[in-house]
Amino acid sequence: MIKVGLLYGGRSGEHEVSLCSAASVFSSLDRGRYEVLAIGIDKDGRWYVQNPPEIVNDKDFGKILTIKKTGSWLLNHFEDGNTLCLVDMDSGERAVVDVVFPVLHGTYGEDGTLQGLLELAMVPYVGADVLGSAVGMDKEFAKRLLKEAGIPVVPWITVRNADWSANKNAITQQALNDIGLPLFVKPVCAGSSVGITKVKDAALLGDAVETALQYDTRALIEKSVDCREIECSVIGNDNPEASVPGEIVPRHEFYSYEAKYIDPEGAALVIPASLDAVTAERVRRLAVEGYRALGCSGMARVDFFLEKSGSGLYLNEINTIPGFTSISMYPKLWEASGMDYSTLLGRLIDLAFERHMKRKLIKTEMNAT
Known about the structure:
Layout: E1 2-9, H1 15-28, E2 34-41, E3 47-49, E4 55-58, E5 62-65, E6 73-76, E7 84-88, E8 94-97, E9 99-103, H2 113-120, H3 130-137, H4 139-148, E10 156-160, H5 161-166, H6 168-178, E11 183-187, E12 197-199, H7 205-212, E13 218-223, E14 227-236, E15 241-242, E16 246-250, H8 257-262, E17 267-270, H9 277-293, E18 298-307, E19 313-319, H10 329-336, H11 341-360
Parallel strand pairs: 1-2, 1-9
Antiparallel strand pairs: 2-3, 4-5, 6-7, 7-8, 10-13, 11-12, 11-13, 14-15, 14-16, 14-18, 16-17, 18-19
């Protein structure tokens, strides 16, 4: 039986979201195929094998997979080829997994850092590789690559922490001149709408930038588009496929962290989205093109802005580890496309092994001459 290490929690502002996603994945993995080991990472970055795992009710997130901080666990990948071994230095207990399923949203989980560790350990893992994860998380460089690939993106400027400290007035004026009001300010490398502010008053722009820079060393100032928010799920390695598109209809001013996770009435999910056939196919095509342009593999949710007046369609961002509760958009879109939640999880694990086997064929040394 395949031993799956479900990795969740993490050093991120999206820690709590991860606990919720992990509860759904843990409950839905096919126990006829997989033995599941829950591995929680606390907010300090320490890893803890959960024995036994425990799902509890939570007032904000419904159900979460808790993290019990017991033992002193160290990683060791040298004992068994292509497996990840965790050893409790207190008790001597060992836990070995064949494949890692990360459900870690945001920094130190979705940004390529974890993926780099798993690549060094030569362990199969679900989701995008180092490059795809890092670029997908970095809104600035994702936009640059998408624009280079001819995929439309919303106009933006990037603000670096040091530049902001030295030239606040000049940057503020540039944003007002080049972007105009209203606009959004967001951290470059953060997800789940953490640190995002919609700015309608020029006097509030500085505070919005300061807020974003609490979560990253760069902030994005981006044009506000009067739009519908369309999302599409993509799965695959070399031959990615797109789901039917869906639509987020926020009941807040925009799709904020609170609207996503705290307020049960914060937004409605419309699946499939009410789109004409030409627009729906365009969304699916651009989702796959954007996925390829950023070097993604495994899975991603691709988010678009569709102008309410006009036909403008902009690729907003790509999430390489999207929300994974049973009611999250990524699995719901695949359900509407004919793939249920448990089958989806199994397909993702199969893709992890597929990519791993191909990587094992890559030469790492020159032949002797």
